[in-house]
Design a protein that fits this description.
Layout (H helix, E strand, L loop, with lengths): L3 H22 L8 E4 L4 E4 L5 E3 L14 H7 L33 H18 L3 H20 L3 H16 L8 H15 L6 H7 L4 H15 L12 H8 L3 H16 L8 H15 L6 H8 L3 H13 L7
Antiparallel strand pairs: 1-2, 2-3
Length: 321
């Protein structure tokens, strides 16, 4: 007799839940069955077409897979790993904002607690000198790449090069900033998005002599395949900064191609050749550009532009009067 009342209440609750579930699965207008339209994020009636719910949240993945193998490759939990962080992004990162999940400011006691958690979190993330070294270097690479406007693939490659140098014990006797700058310079050249030594020196914390010495050492020890810089790789950036037309940019590429066929590229600075090609192309397409303007963008002297300019025009069948 004592167990009967709870059993009755349980049956009543189950009946109520069943009725609520039944109400949500049928159309409130005609009583027809409901169908989920995942493409439009709606729940509609299959009989009368009434839209019962709209703007539904899709709980599925943001990617598409067409077979089981591709589904297994794309499936993941959490954020993807990255070589640009010393722990590959697998550890917890506590934000610096002293706010809760609703955007409200934390109390003084909660702020002190969060500060202690951040301190211990940083200690656990960098447990030894090698991880601290890597964290500092990757932060330096990201800073310089942002200042130079380099894409993410160049940063990833630079991070891999620095990791290899650290694993091969190439850092003793060299500064972290020097190896990081050399890694970024090598990665930019490998990706076909080079930057000049002058540009690297401006954003780096090392001088040009240390940069070039470290770069040669890293290339030799890691056996990296880095092709000589192509002047054409500098043309789009210079053309964009100077605001020249597509016709002038196309003419500059043609001038460099003709100079390469004539054997004038070898032994010349690619930056100076690219700047001279832009200047020559602007004159050939009746666009007003001065040597000073081109030199400021390319960071080369006007004398270099004049010398390379005359050499490029010598490859033309006809020179302008």
């Amino acid at each position: 007799m004592s167990e009967s009342p709870p059993r009755v209440r349980t049956n009543e609750r189950t009946t109520e839940e069943t009725s609520e579930t039944t109400e949500t699965e049928v159309c409130p207008e005609c009583g027809g069955s409901l169908v989920n339209d995942t493409e439009h994020g709606e729940t509609v009636c299959s009989e009368c077409g009434l839209v019962v719910e709209e703007d539904e949240i899709d709980p599925g993945p943001e990617w598409r897979a067409f077979d089981s193998r591709e589904r297994d490759e794309k499936s993941r939990v959490g954020a993807p790993t990255t070589k640009m962080m010393h722990d590959k992004g697998l550890s917890t990162n506590i934000g610096w904002q002293d706010k809760d999940g609703y955007g409200n400011a934390l109390s003084s006691r909660q702020r002190e607690k969060m500060q202690r958690l951040r301190t211990w979190n940083e200690r656990f993330r960098t447990r030894d000198s090698k991880e601290r070294n890597l964290k500092q270097a990757l932060g330096e690479i990201d800073r310089m790449a942002s200042a130079l406007g380099l894409p993410e693939n160049v940063r990833e490659t630079a991070s891999v090069i620095y990791r290899r140098a650290l694993e091969d014990d190439l850092l003793p006797g060299r500064s972290i900033e020097g190896v990081a700058t050399a890694s970024l310079y090598a990665a930019a050249r490998q990706a076909g998005n080079p930057r000049s030594l002058d540009e690297l020196e401006r954003v780096s914390r090392v001088d040009r002599m240390e940069l070039t010495r470290t770069y040669r050492y890293i290339i030799r020890e890691l056996e990296l395949e880095v092709r000589p810089a192509d002047p054409e790789h500098y043309v789009p950036r210079f053309a964009s900064d100077l605001g020249v037309s597509e016709e002038a940019e196309r003419r500059a590429r043609d001038l460099l191609d003709q100079a390469r066929e004539a054997g004038l590229i070898s032994g010349k600075s690619p930056v100076g050749l690219a700047a001279a090609a832009i200047y020559a192309a602007s004159l050939l397409t009746n666009q007003k550009l001065t040597q000073s303007e081109v030199g400021d963008v390319a960071d080369v002297s006007e004398v270099t532009i004049r010398n390379r300019y005359h050499e490029l025009l010598e490859t033309q069948p006809e020179t302008p009067a």
